[in-house]
Amino acid sequence: MLEYLLMGAASLLDPAMLLAVVAGVVGGVIIGALPGLTSTMGVALLIPVTFSLPPQVGLAMLGGIYCASTYSGAISAILLNIPGTSASVATMLDGHPMAKAGEPGRAISLATFASAIGGIVSVLALLLLAPQLAEFSLRFGSPEYFLLALFGITVIASMSAGAMEKGLIAGALGLILSTVGVHPLTGTMRFTMDLPTLYDGIPLVVSLIGLYSIPEVIDLIRRARTSDGDGRGVDRSSPLRVLPELMSQKLNLLRSSVIGIIVGIVPGVGCSVGGFLAYDAAKRASKAPQTFGKGASEGIVASETGNNAVTGGTLIPLLTLGIPGNPVTAVLLGGIMIHGLRPGPELFTTNADVTYSFIFSLFLSNLLFIPVGLLLARYGLRVVQVPPAILAPIILALAIIGAYAMRGSVDDIWVMLAIGALGWGMAALAVPRAPLVLGLVLGTLAEGELARSLALVRGDVGAFALQLVTRPICLVLIVLCTFAIVHGIVQHRRNSKFLE
Amino acid sequence: MIATLKSTLAAMCGVTAIAAAAPAAADYPEKPITMIVAYSPGGGTDTAARTIAKYVEKHLGQRLVVENKAGAGGQIGFSALATAKPDGYEIGFINVPSIHLVKKLREGVPYEISDFDPIANIQLDPVVVAVAAESPYQTLADLLADAKAHPGELNIGADGPQSNNQLQLVVAEKALDVDFNFVAFDGTGPAVKATLGGELAASLPSASGATSQVESGRLRLLGVFADQRSPLFPDVPTVSEAAGTDVNSVGASMRGIAAPKGLAPEQKAVLEKAFAAVMEDPEFLAQAKSAGLPLQYMNAEEFGAYMSKADAELDSYVELLK
């Protein structure tokens, strides 16, 4: 083991490796920060480029994109209130309010360092515990997935502080929208209005763009008549000054990392859920939960640590079992196979040189996006000084291009605009939008896994109910769900009383 | 006067048309060719398409640019190919039998199989029967005997619904007179994972999707749905061999190149030649081998014949998929 570790670390001294990581990280930061360009797309488009590179170099580049793009969605989420990727939706809840309050630099620095810490802890888990953790992922069957999705949905309570009813309505709306498209088990078309673009369901990235950028554009246009920009100075404080603040949140960092890693190990759940669950846990554990949603640093830290910790987690079942956990790792699997490597135990023995260099390159990627992201943000910060009359058309153009670029489909632009109209209505009525995203992300998972759980027992509801209370992971999840709901109700009652 | 003008114009148009057509035949292709892929970047189809696109450039003399038109289980991309201009600069990567299944299972699909002009088949990925290493089923006969004793009770999982894998299952059920409980998964990976996790009696992944698990000893293959044993797994019998009954292997996933109908014969010949050449290119073959792409070349005629045969055969199974 020790010699493998040394070998992996030594490979980083290879200039080709360093160059690959730098290229991957720079590309990843840009891809992640632009709404509509996703990590999956970035990795997929680079795979042909990596054909001609030695395997460890090619994989280091892909790993760099994966880590960096998962992080950099936070930049646009904080500065523009538009999530660059779905992983940064929870970051936005506090990141944007903090930026609006005149501290965009602090918000971005917090997000950057927290992402790096989450990423590094998860790579450590990958390095040291991969085989043990992989067995855990196999014990996750359909009933477990169903309950995990249900638990994720309870997070809605945290996303809608002070407006519980509105939050629940938004969450329900998300769940309803998630039923559009082909039924996951039978193939029946539902609510597709005969539009092929809706057959696979309402596209998540396209809806995110609409939901957040259109209301922002409308708001900017309205302000354009009255102002020439915010008149705020650019936040020029040193990014390093957030470090003591971050270090005072050791527990939050650790908890969020662990949550992210667990979510990553369970294939098929994804980075955004890691961020949501970590945010929820931080809020519940916080001494000042009422500050969440208004620019709480704990919220930004939890979400960013959590979503980047998913990256290392997803690589565990990928490298040990060959099971990809999300679209990016599915593409990465293709990239690994193209180099003639087969996931499994031999990846850690026969091909240990490639595998350990790849893992060590991930440490480097997670460190390197700190300067790259902060540098990009340094210029990005000026966005707040751009007059609304100029910024609005730019955002609108990016939104349209982003929606189109997803699948090269003009119909998706219309879907984006329709969801945008919905988002504008929600923003105008002060209905929180994050629960809708959560419903959309988890609705499909919950419904599909419930149907699959029932199909596995041939429709016998009694047998399914018995599984829920006899399988150990199911029991843990049921306890967590119950706790979350009861806690949510108690918290809501207390808040209502306080208001009265 | 007007008549003269008209005829002059007509003549001019004719000349321009000929002038435009002449170099097209001789120098084709004179600019990059777009290849529509009906699935999203990074999937199995896309990776295969990008690999061949990279290596065919040398034989084509122009770049082959992959354009992903993903969505609706391939319908969006296939429809885009069917309605593309047959000028030789837009071709597509098509998946058989998906292209047939989409057409037969849905209402209002805006293409016909006759809208496509097959050029070459590149890949043939058979469906395999896989069980976990610790499964009690040592042979296909064991699995079938248990299925006969417990009709409709054994769970069998695969990518789905309405996929080529499910098609292969219903074909086999009919031929072998057994009844499994089919459970659809969101892709081959999750179905394989559920097999390893003990949720399924067996699963029906594509051969390429099972390779790494078979090599690591976690999965055991009981049979391959194919006419001949697969070079990837020479020790695994074909299903027909193991069951003693002929089972049609129409569920095998094929990936090939097609153009929209109406391509000029000279252009078609250029494309056919380029794809035939790349399938013998040692560099491409080495790359495909290391990436685990199961190659199977068919020329335009063979590929077209396979598609017509598959199209006719599917009619008797399509009801079973609904």
TrEMBL record, chain A:
Q: Which terms are listed as keywords in the entry?
A: Membrane, Transmembrane, Transmembrane helix
- On whether Transmembrane helix is a keyword of this UniProt record, the answer is yes
Q: Where are the transmembrane segments?
A: 20-47, 59-82, 107-130, 142-161, 167-185, 197-214, 257-279, 315-338, 358-377, 389-407, 413-431, 469-490
What residue stretches are annotated with the DUF112 domain? 18-438
- Read off the Pfam families from this record: TctA
Q: Which domain of life is it from?
A: Bacteria
Q: What is this protein called?
A: C4-dicarboxylate ABC transporter permease
- Write down the species: Seohaeicola zhoushanensis
Q: What does UniProt list as this organism's lineage?
A: Bacteria, Pseudomonadati, Pseudomonadota, Alphaproteobacteria, Rhodobacterales
TrEMBL record, chain B:
Q: What are the UniProt keywords, alphabetically?
A: Signal
One Pfam match, given by its short name, reads TctC
Q: What is the originating organism of this protein?
A: Seohaeicola zhoushanensis
What is the name attached to this protein's record?
A: Recombinase RecA
- Spell out the family assignment given in the record's similarity comment: Belongs to the UPF0065 (bug) family.
Q: Which InterPro entries match?
A: BUG, Bug_dom1
Which residues belong to the signal peptide in this entry? 1-26
Keyword Transferase (UniProt): no
